[in-house]
Design goal:
The complex is a heterodimer of chains A (339) and B (325). Chain A is an alpha/beta fold. Helix content of chain A is 40%, strand content 19%. Chain A has 2 domains: 180 residues, Rossmann fold (3-Layer(aba) Sandwich); 143 residues, Rossmann fold. Chain A contains 12 helices and 14 strands. In chain A, the strands form 3 sheets. Chain A has a 7-stranded mixed β-sheet, sandwiched between helices. In chain A, helix 7 links the parallel strand 6 and strand 7. The N and C termini of chain A lie far apart (61 Å). With 325 residues, chain B is α/β, with parallel strands linked by helices. Chain B has a single domain, classed as Thiamin diphosphate (ThDP)-binding fold, Pyr/PP domains (Rossmann fold, 3-Layer(aba) Sandwich). Chain B is 41% helix and 11% strand. Chain B is built from 10 helices and 8 strands. Chain B is globular. The chains are: A alpha/beta (339), B alpha/beta (325). At the A-B interface, helix 3, helix 4 and helix 5 of A face helix 5 and helix 6 of B.
């Protein structure tokens, strides 16, 4: 089997989508530049022409609106936002128009659109080039949100997003671009709304989103050395998200650590924690733990960045704490039962 | 098409249809039968009719919150409009959108939305699709004078010009954005110049003269079909009723009584009626009765239609059909 990096897998998915369907085009900032998309779109404008790989003016709102209008008129666009921060200028067309369209007109017409946004954290880029804003969009009915963490999913979810008749926000993280994995050469899809169990375990469930799914696997390796057997779930889709897989796992392990690359308050991890609490409260042996960004904008200094972004160490520490706490929970429950 | 008597009668009938349909809706707003916000275009009918008279069925229009006239002028079903404002399942948007969200793709109405200028970039996107596929269609974005204060309109004009897209920006300048006169919002009365920076030709036209609107749009549409790119048309007009609802504005402190009286003297329908009288057309009263009958029948049908059942509320968030790739 052939191995590709995450970024090569994104590029291959674009190339295959452009090759097989003349309705597909890509529009956004920096398509022809070496600076914006990494190598995820490299050379595609030479292969498919600049009229299908449209490097647009800096007009996030109207470019996104153009893509929506083109989708409504029968095209299959991918609109590209090289920094998720910049996409905030396009929230109206995404949220008011694309996400509402099917509902507003009684299901008569949807918006088959892929919106690709890149999380570009680290590298001393500061508060407006680093944000992971997926929770905001996960909140919106009518919009699907996917966040691949592996090379295989990077390709399969992009193709699935294109085949979906709804607007799909596809979010990739540049910290994942170097991750390699087996990627089939032919086009394939990864189902939207289905999580992947990356590692089976019995003591604690680590639920990771995007980059934090990769970090959760590294945390599981750390915990294994200490005799703690962690299950790792890569969520992959945030809207809809795979409640059943997550609930079934936590019901078995009794402990959950949710690792997210976004902010803590009203973040994706909060939503997952609430759902787990509602579904499997009686099976919980310890409180649900969240590892997320503090409610603080992204810093710029490399030293502050180190302090800001949690990773495998913090996830492992949270898991260890749950194993300590579960003894206390058990004692309290026994005491309540006795009384 | 030649602008002969027959053409003028067809336009007159469309304008009467829009006027009487909106007066009917205004009545239902007053009695409380219609409760969704309705923004009436009474007084502005010549713009919608003049523009749509220059379009083919396959051309598309995109509108805003005040789009009953656009919808009817492009050929949207009358019963579908009444049912929509009554939020019945037979409405043109299945009773999901109400007055501000009209949809009839079979006649080229691809959506109206009340986010100010929300559909302007979408119209540009449709034009992008037509150009890519080498189709001869034209997309028309209807926008108000208030829309010109939205940044994305200027972004959209730049894109349309840069890619030389077959799109027409029709700015209906009724002088007021909600309650605010243009002079409270701009330093100069020059909306038709807004495309100059992007090399988009602009023209100001009397929006109460259906023939003048048609004449300008026909030129702009022909240019767009030839690959000549976008145009901007500023149609000067006036809305008789308030920003929203049935009433005239005078009760809410928007001081414009003298202005309203002046503009009512320039009624686009009255002007055309007089012209047709001079041309010897003597059956207008009969034609008007036929339109009134049509309105009565459509309204009765809409009133008979069903309301949605409560369990519909969660439906249509997602498109379930798998689109062929």
């Amino acid at each position: 089997m052939r191995a590709l990096s995450y970024v090569q897998a994104i590029r291959e998915a674009h190339a295959q989508l452009l090759a097989r369907d003349s309705r597909v085009f890509v529009i956004g900032q920096g398509l022809w530049s070496p600076w914006y998309a990494g190598s995820s779109l490299e050379g595609l404008e030479r292969e498919f022409g600049r009229s299908r790989m449209v490097d647009s003016p800096v007009s996030e709102n109207a470019v996104t609106g153009l893509a929506i209008g083109a989708a409504l008129a029968g095209m299959r666009p991918i609109v590209f936002h090289p920094r998720m921060d910049f996409m905030l200028l396009a929230v109206d067309p995404i949220m008011n128009q694309a996400a509402n369209w099917s509902y507003l007109f009684g299901g008569a017409q949807g918006v088959p659109l892929v919106i690709r946004a890149v999380i570009n954290r680290g590298g001393q880029q500061g508060a407006q080039h680093s944000q992971a804003l997926h929770a905001m969009f996960m909140h919106v009915p009518g919009l699907k949100v996917v966040m691949p963490a592996t090379a295989y999913d990077a390709k399969g979810l992009l193709i699935a997003a294109m085949e979906d008749p709804n607007p799909v926000l596809y979010i990739d993280d540049r910290w994942l671009y170097g991750e390699t994995g087996v990627v089939p050469e032919e086009p394939y899809t990864v189902p939207i709304g289905k999580a992947a169990v990356r590692r089976s375990g019995s003591d604690v469930t680590l639920i990771g989103i995007s980059w934090m799914a990769a970090e959760s696997l590294r945390a599981a390796a750390l915990l294994e050395r200490e005799g703690i057997d962690a299950e790792v779930i890569d969520l992959r889709s945030l809207k809809p998200w795979d409640r059943d897989t997550v609930a079934a796992s936590v019901a078995r392990t009794g402990r959950a650590v949710i690792a997210d690359s976004g902010w803590r308050t009203a973040g994706a991890a909060a939503e997952i924690a609430a759902e787990v609490g509602e579904r499997v409260f009686r099976e919980l042996l310890a409180p649900i733990a969240r590892v997320a960004l503090p409610d603080v904008p992204a810093p710029c200094s490399g030293i502050e960045e180190q302090a800001y972004y949690p990773g495998a160490e913090q996830i492992a520490a949270a898991a260890r704490q749950l194993l300590t706490k579960s003894k206390a929970v058990r004692m309290a429950r026994t005491a309540r039962g006795a009384a | 098409m030649r602008m002969n008597t027959e053409w003028r009668i067809a336009c007159w009938e469309k304008m009467i249809l829009i006027r009487r349909a909106e007066e009917t809706i205004a009545g239902m707003v007053e009695t409380g039968e219609v409760r969704c916000p309705c923004h009436l275009c009474i007084g502005q009918e010549a713009v919608a009719v003049g523009v749509c008279a220059a379009l083919e069925a396959t051309d598309t229009i995109w509108g805003g919150h005040r789009s009953h006239g656009h919808y009817l002028a492009k050929g949207g079903s009358l019963e579908g409009l009444f049912a929509e404002v009554l939020l019945k399942v037979t409405g043109c948007s299945s009773g999901r959108g109400g007055s501000m969200h009209l949809f009839a793709p079979e006649v080229g109405i691809l959506g109206t939305v009340p986010i100010v200028a929300g559909t302007v970039p979408l119209a540009v996107g449709a034009a992008f699709a037509y150009k890519t596929r080498e189709e001869k269609n034209v997309a028309v974005a209807f926008l108000g004078d208030g829309s010109m204060e939205e940044g994305h309109v200027h972004e959209a004009m730049n894109l349309a010009s840069l890619y030389q897209l077959p799109v027409l920006f029709v700015c209906e300048n009724n002088l007021y954005s909600s309650h605010l006169h243009w002079s409270e919002r701009r330093v100069a009365d020059n909306l038709f110049c807004a495309g100059e920076l992007h090399s988009i030709p602009g023209e100001r036209v009397d929006g109460n003269d259906v023939a003048a609107v048609y004449h300008s749009v026909r030129w702009a549409v022909a240019r767009a079909r030839r690959g000549g790119g976008p145009s901007l048309l500023e149609c000067r007009t006036f809305r008789w009723r308030g920003h929203v609802g049935a009433s005239y504005d005078q009760d809410v402190g928007v001081q414009r009584r003298g202005e309203l009286v002046d503009w009512m003297r320039r009624d686009p329908i009255q002007a055309l009626t007089e012209r047709l009288g001079e041309e010897g057309v003597n059956d207008l009263a009969e034609r008007e009765r036929a339109i009134a009958d049509r309105i009565g029948q459509a309204l009765a049908e809409a009133r008979r239609a069903a309301h949605p059942l409560p369990d519909r509320v969660t439906k249509f968030v997602w498109r379930e059909a798998v689109c062929a790739r």
